[in-house]
Sequence to fold (652 residues):
Amino acid sequence: MKFKRIISLSCTLALLGFSAYAGTINSDTIVVTATRTEAKALTTPSKVNVITSKKLKEEGITFVKDSLKFIPGITVYSNGAFGGSTSVNIMGLPTYYTKTLIDGIDVSDPSQPQPYFDYANLMSDDIQRIEIVQGAQSGLYGSNAIGGVINVITKKGKGKPYFKLSQELGSFHTYQENIESGGQYKKLSFYINISRFDTGGISKMDKYNPTKHSYSKGDEKDSYHKTAFSTRLEYDFDPTLKIGTILKWNKTRNYLDNGWRKVSLFSFVPDDSVPSNNTPQAKSLRSEDSFFLSKVYINKKFLNNLTLKANCFYTQTLRYNKSAPGWYDYKGKRWGSNITATYKINKTTITAGLSQQMEKYEDNSPFKKLRYNYAGFLELNQKIHNLTLQGVAREDKYKTFGNHFTYKLGASFLITQTNTILKANYATGFRAPSIWELYAPPIPTWWFMGGNKNLKPEKAKIWNFGFIQNIWRERLTFNALYFKNIIRNRIEYYTDPKTWQSTYKNVNGKTVSHGVELGLKAKPFDFLETGLNYTYTKSKNPDTGKQTARIPLRVYTGYITVKALNNKLTATVDGRFIGKRYDYSYNKQTKTYYYYEQTGKYAVFDFTALYKPTKRLELSLTVKNIFNRFYEEVYGYSTLPRSAFATISYTF
Fold:
């Protein structure tokens, strides 16, 4: 009954408000991630959200993680405001169940114990759009795509060549310089982006008061620095044949905190003010990260109904810890190739693909490991009047546990009389055990016995259904979605209670998350757009039986955008309310996690004004955390206080 009351209340509130970010999707929006080929976002069976470069600019987004916080069903949290390790969870599932792609290439880090992509350093400079597909997509994308897929699509040169300079100034001695150029010259399109970001920063950890058992802002200035370069070249031999290449590189230097206060026999909490965090060595503690992606692709069309796409790629993630004796350095590498063929006849689209992928783990010990994955998939999309059907089947082959089969069935139906779109999906998913979980060498001083070569993949069953209701010529849109995720055969770090020896093993118990996403967008006038979303997520930790740590039970997000002066001025106020949420603390003695503190129940509001006095000149001002609310996404780690950032851009 409690759940029913929550849903009833949420529906009532949603009907009084409007839906954030739904404004980036209309009946003509085309996406490529949900079906591995171009399709209309509204009529694909999966729920899709799109964040455009225009929306990123209007919201004053520098780091992509800040835009994802407003997407229903997504939870984002960071260990520190600038450069803090950032996790993205979809539908109440851990971050390693989210597959992140950049231009269709998996960019998760193979050197992580559970590979995932850290969003701490991803900035918006060179992004054309971001497509978020919710629900299991292992049938299309293989391992780890259980919660969903986020595909970051970079800019492509088009139109008359241009040259653009941007300069940002802001709080905490923050500076960003950006050079951008792109366009077309005959059959060649090009795009290039070079940027530098520097900030004096704020303390990564907050300051703990043991008497009041509370936190306040830390005193340190943990700086953060990033240099980035990206480019894309594409040559059209004719309307049926194109080849291209993409390069993306960035390097960061991030100063860290490593202070822990003992509050009981086996309990420690983060604390910026402990003496150990004020030593010269601690003050110089930093990490240096480097990321590189390269992709070469070719697209060929035959007879207007057959398209062949092929690519080869290489990614590399390097993580170095400086001024920290005993800490490891890590190298994760991935390379491979993909080929897909799409055949269209009447209202039937058939897509088939083959891929091979190698991933490698290295650290500064003698341990190094390489493994292979081969896969093939077949996708059928069929339109029957107003009904769209999607069926996907995929086979993955790993040396350690053999073959694994996944599939997806989805349907979308348009009720013409009421302009209502119904969606439903059922899918299976899996997560392959990582290189570290399988092959990690023993570490006797940690009572670690090493990896477990007998691990089997985690298995998932996912279903969701919902609807989109368009009213008043798409000026009013209501949407709702129910989802449920069940994951079995979980892989966990297991410690024998008698011997204290540890390893990884498949354990009993199910990870279960379910919930509801509601939203309503309205654009009553051309100059006004407003919205509110509500997400309820019940995510059960099978080890504790409680709500999964860092996953809020309820989240509200909303915004109001006003355009004035013949659309030269765009002003946006957005906000989010995080309901009840708990975090855990780490017990160094027993090497286990347990519940500790409430980190939810707060509201944060931001403001951005974008002014274009001429076609070439852009001015923007962003104020984060307008009311200077103190809050934490991760217990003991900082978030931005009230801060302001101004940017000027000029296009030649």
Remarks:
- Helices lie at 2-16, 53-58, 64-68, 138-141, 280-283, 435-439.
- DSSP finds six helices and 39 strands in the chain.
- The domain at 2-651 is CATH 2.40.170.20 (Maltoporin; Chain A).
- The radius of gyration is 24 Å.
